Fold this sequence. Notes:
- The protein is α+β, with helices and mostly antiparallel strands.
- Helix content is about 25%, strand content about 35%.
- It has six helices and eleven strands.
Amino acid sequence: xxxxxxxxxxxxxxxxxxxxxxxxxxxxxxxxxxxxxxxxxxxxxxxxxxxxxxxxxxxxxxxxxxxxxxxxxxxxxxxxxxxxxxxxxxxxxxxxxxxxxxxxxxxxxxxxxxxxxxxxxxxxxxxxxxxxxxxxxxxxxxxxxxxxxxxxxxxxxxxxxxxxxxxxxxxxxxxxxxxxxxxxxxxxxxxxxxxxxxxxxxxxxxxxxxxxxxxxxxxxxxxxxxxxxxxxxxxxxxxx
Length: 240
């Protein structure tokens, strides 16, 4: 089964976002619905592991750190409530969008079952939303931000699927808003493609959310999407 990507833009620089995800994880992780012991427990990175401590002092190891590269990357095995032998892997990357915004991307792989993947498909957005809510909604300004939406096939021959119509409909809405730069498939790729958008910095966070929800072909799993910030340093004279 393919890796699962889930993303959020937080209103903080990469260093601050990394610090919040690691050193302050116990202050924002939604333990009541996304933990082993539930309400009253707390998660923390300790001794090379991510460990949950329950209200009674019981401990559950969620995973072991594989990579720790502040402020860019964390990678660890992942098995909350399961044996380490059944672990998948979670990679969390932090990419600057602006000086005060960071794209946080969770890539989860190594699934034991489709049901497990579907559970995390809905769970990671809630966790990342909790992380984003930790930061104040300070004004982001209107400087232009370029984003690349990389689409891959979620099913075999996605363009032939009746639900694929949701994708061009989403692109049409972006065009009507005046933020679409270009979009299209890679020839012979079997459904892989790319969309480039240019939005004010104040609209970057909502665009990332829309890419995974308002594009019904992505929401239904026909396509998978990963959004990347693109730092444009030069462009043709015909492009504003």
